[in-house]
Specification:
The protein is α+β, with helices and mostly antiparallel strands. The protein has one domain (about 25-155): Jelly Rolls (Sandwich). Helices cover about 15% and strands about 40% of the residues. The chain has helices at about 5-15, 25-30, 135-145; strands at about 35, 45-50, 55-60, 65-70, 75, 85-100, 105, 110-115, 120-135. Strands 1, 2, 3, 4, 5, 6, 7, 8 and 9 form a nine-stranded antiparallel β-sheet that branches. The longest helix has 13 residues, at about 5-15.
Length: about 160
């Protein structure tokens, strides 16, 4: 296996050559994910324990890709979801209940887009892990430009 430093050098070379960038398979497998700050308000948690972990796998000029993992938890989304977010369920199960009461279930290997403006119930079941893709400009506006940049591509130079 290559070290993070070796991977960063390879990623720098790949970026400068406009080559494809391999996403870190260890991170996708949930190995050594960085602990995150809880962002769900305690009063919004219906059940479970929110303990986020994750890392940025790629940060390009127009796209951010993250791996995100959390304990089983169900919570309310009152405020409209701030971004269009692509999600691929890596492990566990995601159950989204929209504001009309319609239930949408996604299991390992399935993909979805959570549209900007979504409100409802977000339920992560089992050992939940997901791969996320978000527009870079929107990501920076919402989360800031410096969050979790341990595995960036564009900013590595």
């Amino acid at each position: 296996m290559e070290s993070a430093a070796m991977g960063a050098k390879q990623n720098e070379k790949s970026k400068s050559a406009h080559s494809p960038v391999r996403l870190d398979p260890d991170k996708i497998a949930g190995i050594d994910l960085s602990p995150g700050e809880p962002f769900i308000q305690p009063e919004d948690i219906i059940e479970g324990h929110h303990r986020p972990r994750g890392d940025i796998l790629f940060k390009g000029d127009q796209l951010v890709m993250e791996i995100y993992e959390d304990n089983a938890a169900t919570y309310k989304i009152h405020e409209p979801f701030p971004v269009d977010e692509y999600v691929q369920v890596i492990s566990g199960k995601l159950v989204l209940t929209d504001s009309n009461g319609q239930v949408h279930e996604y299991t390992q290997g399935e993909s979805l887009v959570v549209p900007k403006g979504f409100t409802g119930i977000w339920s992560m079941q089992g050992n939940y892990r997901e791969l996320i893709a978000i527009d870079r400009q929107t990501y920076d506006q919402i989360y800031g430009t410096g969050q979790g940049e341990t595995s960036t591509e564009s900013d590595a130079q």
